[in-house]
Design brief:
67 residues; alpha+beta; 3-stranded antiparallel β-sheet; 1 helix; 25% helix; DUF6316; Thiolase
Length: 67
């Protein structure tokens, strides 16, 4: 469980679970907004997919970014 606060959060940190999950032998990641991405062949590839996703989101203009 991640207990760190994010920028702009006040009060106790909310419960957070892992962004990664496995169904059968395939791995997926999920975003705060509930978007699931996958399947990936391994957790490592799912982690790479999440890093790529976050990189693309950071390139979007502020008004188009997923919050």
């Amino acid at each position: 469980m991640d207990t760190q606060r994010r920028s702009g959060e006040n009060g106790p940190a909310p419960f957070r679970s892992s962004r990664f999950f496995c169904v059968g032998s395939k791995w997926y990641f999920t975003t705060r907004e509930g978007f699931d991405s996958g399947p990936f062949a391994s957790r490592q590839r799912a982690e790479t997919g999440l890093r790529r996703f976050l990189h693309v989101v950071r390139l979007l203009p502020e008004e188009q970014q997923v919050h």
